[in-house]
């Protein structure tokens, strides 16, 4: 059975580096992916990838749809001796960045849109059994009764839709040092035509309060701060952003504790939450097309498919 291990991802990276150093002292093999520290890179055979990464896949927070889906995929491909390491988006990207800089092997749970695909040469492992379900969408979900209580906010959230390039632009600005609020304000200022269509015909309110839930993934940090910026500067609302994990986010909207979210990955990743809470909330449809989740590795690794991990 696959088990989550509660280990700090950065600690694992250090341990992996020690392991690789030991491997380099034992010599190298002439075939496989080039990894390790230059100028003396370590050659790892294609069929030894599991040993090279300690049979670990670096994940994010427990309960995230991508983690649940990855567990299912691991069972589907018979990866019974592998572990899915629980952490966070920040810990995962830190581990990935350090491994990438040192040309070390690493396997992560990845998704797009995400800034890491713009900054690093990465690739999805092929999924011939379609365990991850292919392309998805990100949906906007609101509590029941929002349309009656806050019609302007409801209509804006229903109209809110953007493209992966838009989301990635905000993520990259945050990565480069801007606060999420600043990155969102700059994007809104530079995209007045698009924003104007979202709020067209809507009358501003007088500081009515709203709460939007989100998970601490770079993609959802970007979208949630954009929504907050528009609701506040264009429509006069006072918006509180509530950062929670995926399960509480869905439950909060279903129970009416928060007004909505723009972070539901469907139809596959968050399918279990939709099945559990679907009749207690309202799905306003996709706000972004062209998303994807899967297992991701650096481009320098000599592996192409999940099947090669067994």
TrEMBL record:
GO CC terms for this protein? Answer: ATP-binding cassette (ABC) transporter complex
* Record-linked PROSITE patterns: PROKAR_LIPOPROTEIN
SUPFAM superfamilies reported in the protein's UniProt record: Periplasmic binding protein-like II
Keyword vocabulary terms for this entry: Cell membrane, Membrane, Signal, Transport
> Per the record, a Pfam family?
OpuAC
Q: Which GO terms describe its biological process?
A: choline transport; glycine betaine transport
Which protein are we looking at? Glycine/betaine ABC transporter substrate-binding protein
Source organism of the structure:
Brevibacillus parabrevis
List the gene name.
Answer: gbuC_1
